[in-house]
Amino acid sequence: GSEKLQAAACCCMQNLAAIDRDTRRRLVAQGAIKGAAMVLSRTTSTTAAAAACGIAQNLAVDPEFLPPLLDSEIPQELVGLCQRSKGMEDPTMPLAATLALLNMAAGG
């Protein structure tokens, strides 16, 4: 139950983070970065983890949100996710993590 709810919430936040800067500001002000980091560190749901990566990916396209992203635990969690996913048949999580890291590296 809670994994599905977590995945749904992350998917909603991922979609909201793609809308515009004002929406991203509101999400960040309401704790989206900390929440995404927590999901990345704790979830066992592929869907929730991929959506949390998507939140980071969508925030990272905007230079305004790079400092709070880089100051959070998200980069470390994304790298850890890539490391843990070696040998997994489903490439969804490592691909999502890699795309988020690439957006951060590109600097928005």
UniProtKB/TrEMBL annotation:
Gene3D superfamilies given in the database record: Leucine-rich Repeat Variant
Domain of life of the native organism: Eukaryota
InterPro entries per record: ARM-like (IPR011989), ARM-type_fold (IPR016024)
Name of the molecule in the record: Armadillo repeat-containing protein 8
Organism per entry: Hemiselmis andersenii (Cryptophyte alga)
